[in-house]
Each structure stands twice: as structure tokens, then as C-alpha cells.
Amino acid sequence: MIQSIIFYIFAALSVLLAVLVILQKNVMHSVLYLSFTILAISGVFFTLHAEFLGAVQILVYAGGIIVLYLFVIIIVNLKEIKAEKRNIFPKFFIVCISVLFLAEMIYIFFKNRISVPANADFPEFEALFEMLLSKYLIPFEIASILLLAVLIGSIIIARRKLLHDSD
Amino acid sequence: MIPINQIIALGLIIFVIGLFGVLFRKNLMIILMAIELMLNGVNVIFAGIGYHMKSPVGSIFAIFVILMAVAEAAVGFALALSYFRQKKTYDLDEISELKG
Questions:
Q1: Is A167 helix (H, G, I), strand (E, B) or coil?
Q2: Residue A165's pLDDT band (boundaries 50, 70, 90)?
Q3: Do A7 and B73 touch (CB under 8 A)?
Q4: What's phi and psi for B34, nearest 5 deg?
Q5: Is A1 helix (H, G, I), strand (E, B) or coil?
Q6: Distance CA A119, CA B69 (A)
Q7: Which of A4, A59, A116, B5 gives a 20 to 30 Å CA spacing to B79?
Q8: pLDDT of residue B16
Q9: How far does Cα B5 stand from its chain's mean position?
Q10: Residue A19 and residue B17: Cβ atoms within 8 Å?
Q11: Nearest-CA distance from A166 to chain B in Å?
């Protein structure tokens, strides 16, 4: 009962803050609301018995990605960003696409009764790591190769091209 | 137990908010943030299904999604920076030419 109440509080918070993220004019306010959204979603994870996932969410998103966003926004000059304008017809079209997609998915998921096979009891906390390092070992290692490729690739893309200078 | 329909509905709503942001905004940084919102919606659905299966598989898949989100964010920022050095703006209407 108390778990459901906490879940609903965090769910309402995350939806509200996610709406605020995409409606802000100032990019810095948007980053602020994105960090609050991330924290609210990690609260949802904690109520769903995914404690490790919630901790990773706080560490990686709120600690890593948000700081990256802040750095990138601080590097550029915010005053050079122009106000965006869009005609009324594309606006209407975009709103219709989003609403129709949501309605379709909710119709599909609520028309069919979803039943998932369940184990007897919640797993031990160690079961996640045992499964991650035995059954899902190959995706784990491939993910590390992906991170290495991202490290090298993003440096190569984002560096200033000084190689062609004479000095 | 929280009903699985409500968890999936929450994930879908967050996903659609992100989709709306990707389609509606023209600022590159806000579009990247909206993509993060979409990935978070998927993560909520994964965690909810793992919660109902009482199995750690949902958390494992969500961790892989987070890894992919980090990779996407890093490469996206690199592209955004090199783009900003050329055009001095984050407006996506200015990027609509194919010439480098």
C-alpha cells in the first residue's frame, strides 16, 4: 500500500518534470528539470525493487550526463541562440502524431491482458551480478568495447582541426 | 504489487513526451535531452517487467540501455560541438544542408 503511494508520487513527479523539460525556453532550465526527472525516475526504480538500477541511474545520469550537458552548454555562448518559430500546421501535425502514438500503444497494452511468468520470490541482490557476469558476459564485454570506441570517436569528432595548419 | 499496466503506461507516457520533444523543438540540446527521456521511458518498462517476473533480467537490460545512452550522449555532444563551431547556432533548420 505505502509502496503504491510512493510509486504514484514519483510517477506523477516524473511525468510533470518531463513535460517541463521540453517546454522551457532557456536550455539551462531544461537541464535542471532533466536532472529532477532523472532523480524522480530513479525513485520509481527504487519502488520497483530495482535498487541497483536506481543507483546506476543517479550515478551515471545525474552525475555524468547532466554534467556533460552543463559543460557543453557553458562552452557555447547562450546569447547566440535564436528564438524558434514554427508554423501552425506542423505544430498541429506533431501534436497529432504524438497523441495518436500514445493512444495506440495504450490501447494495445490495455486491450490485451499482460501476464508475465513470475518466480516464487524476489531474487537475491547477488543474482543480478551473477547473471550479468555469467549469462550476459558477452554483451557486457561488447559494451566495454562500445565505450572505448565512443571515447576515441568523440575525441576525434570534437577536436579542433589543427592538423592542416602550417605551424 | 503495482499493476503492470500502470507501470507500462508510465513508461509510455514518458516515451511519448520525449518523442514530442524530439519532433517539436528545434534546439539541438533539447532534442538530445528528449532522446534521454525516451530511453528513460523504455527503462521504466524494463524495470517494471523485471519487477513482475521477479527476475534481475529487467535490470540487466536497463543497464545496457543506460550504457547505450551514455555512448549516444557522448557522440551527440561531440557532433553538436563540431556543428556549433561551424554554424554558431543550435537551430536545426540551419543544419539542413548536406555539404560539410
A1: coil
A2: low
A3: no
A4: -65, -35
A5: coil
A6: 30
A7: A59
A8: 92
A9: 22
A10: yes
A11: 21
Q: What is the ipTM of this complex?
A: 0.90
CA A51 – CA A49 distance, rounded (Å) = 6
Rounded Cα–Cα distance for residues A84 and A90 (Å): 13
Amino acid at A147: L
Closest to A127 in 3D by CA, of A60, A56, A50: A50
Residue A137's alpha-carbon distances to A129, A132, A142, B55, in angstroms, are 10, 6, 9, 17
The CATH number given to whatever domain includes residue B34 is 1.10.287.3510
Burial class (CB in 10 A: 0-12, 13-18, 19+), B83: middle
Q: Which three cell numbers stand for residue A139?
A: 554483451
Question: What is the domain partition of chain A in residue ranges?
Answer: 2-122, 136-167
Question: What is the rounded CA–CA span in Å between residue B81 and residue A159?
Answer: 9
Pick A34's closest partner by Cβ from B33, B81, B84.
B33
Distance CA A6, CA A109 (A): 24
pTM of the predicted protein model:
0.87
Q: Point out the residue among A56, A65, A123 whose CB comes nearest to the CB of B54.
A: A123
Count interface pairs A-B at CB distance under 8 A: 213
Burial A14-27 (b: 16+ CB within 10 A, else e): bbebbbbbbbbeeb
- Which residues are bridge partners to B91 per DSSP? B27
Pick the CATH number of A2-122 from 2.40.50.140, 1.20.1250.20, 2.60.120.460, 1.20.120.1200: 1.20.120.1200
Q: Which domain holds residue B52?
A: 27-98
Contact across the interface for B68 and A49, Cβ inside 8 Å: no
